Amino acid sequence: MARVRLSVEGLILARGGRRLFDPLTFATTGGAYVEVRGPNGAGKTSLLRAIAGWMRPFDGTIRFEGVEEPALAIAYLGHRDGLKPLLSADAHARHWRALLGGDGDSAEALDRVGLSAVADLPVRAFSQGQQRRLALSRLLIAPRPVWLLDEPAAALDSAGKRLLAEIVSDHVKHGGLVIAAAHEPLGPAPDQILALA
Amino acid sequence: MSLLGIMGAQFRRDLALVWKSGAAAPLGFFLGAAALTPLAVRPTTFDELDQLAQIGPQLLWIAAALAALLVLERLFQADLEDGSLDQMTLSAAPLEALVAAKAAALWVGVGLPIALAGAPAALALQAPPAAIPAIATGLAVGMAAFIGAGLVGAAAAASVKRGGVLIALLALPFFAPPFIFGAAAARAAVLGDPFGEAFALLCGIALAAAAIGPVAAAAALRLQAE
């Protein structure tokens, strides 16, 4: 499989009529870990959502190469975990496999994020950290080359943060591209840091 | 996974959610509204009982339309709030297909039970037993038309807090055609007149709503993904 390439040129995003950051130009490829930094309101989330194709750029281009359809190459983990309080962790795992397409072993993925003991419980019984872990398992269940992570460490305990760092490193090692917005370094040494201002 | 496989998964998930999050509430609303009708008409003579029989099934249609509005409010709002909508746009299945699967689940989970409950409700409102199958079938098709026609409003108001009133304003005009022909078919059935023509028009409206609704709703949802 050709390595995925992402090139962003002269990107300007606007929210509520306000320009979020100076025109942004960068290029990166699979096998790289990119950390997006910047104060609250700098536009970290907007940048990720623009790369995911949900937010229309005010100006500039975002181009993927080496993938047929960007939407099918992207895994997104945001503030909102995409969880239904009434469904079990196991039901979520099975649904993601179908919805996002994946050959990941859902039992193994739940085990890796430390949820196999509570896989049958509805998510409303989960703590914030457990919910975040379940959302993380989505990255393993439906493997996608490009990961867009928005503050992925939020609500995770120290073991969870180590697990996150491990999962990200593994993905990068296997040729994946990870772009993460983070207040604090996630752990893996970034190949590139985008400071938004 | 095939397109139908993904739609099936979305359908099962939504159906499970409809049941777990209380499909009984709109059903109870429907039955409650139907039970209030005789109290408003207050038949004391046989003539008045006949009047109730004539308007009863049509009042059921009002209750069904309002029940449909109730369930439409949370259809997309929950997905938008909890981030599920983001994941839906990353699927190999087009958003239109996933919306159609969600609408189908809503119809099976809420629409059909309401149509079934319409049978005893119509009996209680003095409809002749011979007219009951036609009334229930009409309500089942009508619920499909209401849900299909209401999808756009539900999608457009998904990011609005307490969007229920907005959805009602957006969707009610589209409810008019199924309302007219559905209630006409119910009335004809009660009177023992042929109702095939009105029923066929109702079916046509339901099909059109089911075909156009998901496409329009998906477009409205994409605009709100930012």
3D structure, described in words:
The complex is a heterodimer of chains A (197) and B (226). Chain A has 197 residues and is of the alpha/beta class. Chain A is 31% helix and 24% strand. Chain A has six helices and ten strands, in the order βββββαβαβαααβαββ. In chain A, strands 7-8-9-5-10 form a five-stranded parallel sheet, sandwiched between helices. Chain A has a three-stranded antiparallel sheet with strand order 4-1-6, with no helix packed on it. In chain A, helix 6 links the parallel strand 8 and strand 9. The model of chain A has no long low-confidence stretch (mean pLDDT 92). Chain B is mainly α. Chain B has one domain (3-225). Helix content of chain B is 84%, strand content 0%. Chain B contains eight helices and no strands. The longest helix of chain B is centred in the first third of the chain and has 37 residues, at 46-82. The two termini of chain B are 28 Å apart. Chain A binds chain B through residues 49, 52-56, 71-72, 74-76, 78-84, 86-87, 91, 94-96, 98-101, 138, 144, and chain B through 1, 5-6, 8-10, 13, 16-17, 20-21, 78, 81-84, 86-93, 98, 225-226.
